[in-house]
Write a structure and sequence with these properties.
The protein is mainly alpha-helical. Helix content is 64%, strand content 9%. It is built from 7 helices and 3 strands. The chain has a 3-stranded antiparallel sheet with strand order 1-3-2. A hairpin with a 7-residue loop joins strand 2 and strand 3. Helix 1 crosses helix 5 and helix 3 crosses helix 4. The model has no long low-confidence stretch (mean pLDDT 92).
Length: 132
């Protein structure tokens, strides 16, 4: 547990600095990262980020003002707004990942087989339960 706590602290610090280099808060960077997986409804994004829906509205408002995301009506329920990453949002997300040197350097110390094994282990512990 202690090593996991330390590793998460290092990752979060690395991520926060990388997001700041793009003039984003950690929460804004986290929202972009979540949207990199695909569009999400505002409520689902709030759940993913474990924050109140009112907080996600403010985060998305600021990201939208910068042209990093856009809101679109859901095809099946026009009352629902999906948040979509723009091309600029994708570029910024990639830039954040590229600047996470501490995390990348740590992972680069692993060989391909160890990196694959780490992925499997993390999926078993934190994934959706689909890993065997």
């Amino acid at each position: 547990m202690e090593l996991l706590s330390v590793s998460l602290g290092v990752y979060y610090g690395d991520f926060t600095l990388a997001a700041a280099s793009e003039n984003l808060t950690a929460s804004q960077g986290k929202a972009l990262t979540a949207l990199r997986r695909g569009p999400a409804a505002m409520r689902a994004l709030a759940e993913t980020m474990t924050c109140d829906a009112s907080n996600i509205t403010g985060i998305i408002d600021r990201l939208e003002k910068r042209g990093l995301v856009r809101r679109e009506p859901d095809a099946s329920d026009r009352r629902v707004k999906n948040v979509v990453l723009t091309a600029e949002g994708e570029r910024v997300t990639d830039a954040i990942r590229a600047r996470m040197r501490t995390t990348r350097d740590g992972l680069d110390r692993l060989g391909d087989q160890d990196r694959d094994r780490l992925y499997v282990l993390l999926e078993q512990v934190f994934g959706s339960g689909s890993a065997d």
